[in-house]
Specification:
Strand order of the largest sheet: 5-4-1-6-7-8
Distance between the termini: 50 Å
Shape: globular
Structural class: alpha/beta
CATH superfamily of the largest domain: HAD superfamily/HAD-like
Number of strands: 8
Length: 255
């Protein structure tokens, strides 16, 4: 049976290779990072989104969440491929409805609203504020570069007490696509006005690590879940379990 996720990633890999964007330069001494672009989830903790599922559906919460997560990204990528864009929240809610049907859970409007509410009240991981402050003290420019909408990102910034930390809040919603479309990663280059080699991309998921590397970013993977890398022919430049590891990685390369 065709795998939409794999097909989409292969298609975008080919597109990135053939794109007219200049090829990153290669030198014996990598350029110093001047900016850091974060996916949302190295900073925001998604675990509370799942908490209501078990309360609402005792003994079935994990099953529902696993089905929801998988379909959430598949719907985003399928819509991007098919030219039928819908923003992160819409695709996520549609995926939840499908997931509930797939695992045969009766999902009423009240339960659906409670599960979706977590996306509007994101909190930061415990290590986020201190680590982000350390990066700013080091003179690095910071941005979000996420598939979430700008409104979602700004609400999370406010909820997490991170106002004034990020120079740019970049959402692929502004160009009606989703990472790993190379156009999504280009947003960081355009906003910072820097060569991609000088922008460190910080990923949460293995597929985003691969997409950013295909584009030409150096990548640090905050692998909080301890999952293996995707088998997509690229490797992160650095990896750790939290943002403190990112700070150490950056400091070592700025000596």
């Amino acid at each position: 049976m065709p795998n939409p996720r794999r097909e989409f990633l292969q298609l975008l890999a080919a597109g990135a290779a053939a794109a007219s964007i200049p090829t990153p330069s290669r030198s014996a001494t990598p350029p110093r990072y001047k900016a850091v672009a974060f996916d949302a989830f190295p900073v925001f903790d998604p675990r509370p989104i799942a908490a209501p599922a078990e309360r609402l559906f005792p003994g079935r919460g994990a099953e529902l969440m696993n089905a929801w997560r998988s379909r959430q990204f598949e719907y985003q990528w399928l819509r991007a491929m098919g030219g039928r864009y819908a923003d992160f929240l819409q695709a996520t809610e549609e995926a939840l409805v499908f997931a509930a049907k797939a695992v045969k859970i009766e999902l009423g409007s009240e339960e659906r609203a409670k599960l979706m509410a977590g996306w509007s009240d994101l909190q930061a991981w415990p290590d986020a504020a201190q680590s982000l402050a350390a990066l700013k003290r080091a003179g690095l420019r910071l941005a979000f570069l996420s598939n979430m909408t700008e409104a979602m990102l700004r609400a999370g910034i406010a909820s997490a007490g991170l106002d004034g930390v990020f120079e740019h809040v970049l959402s692929t919603d502004s160009i009606r696509t989703y990472k790993p479309d190379p156009r999504g990663y280009q947003l960081g280059v355009d906003a910072f006005g820097l060569p991609r080699e000088e922008i460190l991309f910080v990923s949460f998921a293995g597929w985003d690590t691969a997409g950013a590397k295909w584009f030409g970013y150096p990548v640090f993977w905050v692998n909080r879940l301890g999952v293996p890398p995707e088998e997509l022919g690229v490797t992160a430049d650095g990896m750790g379990r939290g943002l403190a590891d990112l700070v150490t990685f950056v400091e070592q390369r700025r000596l």
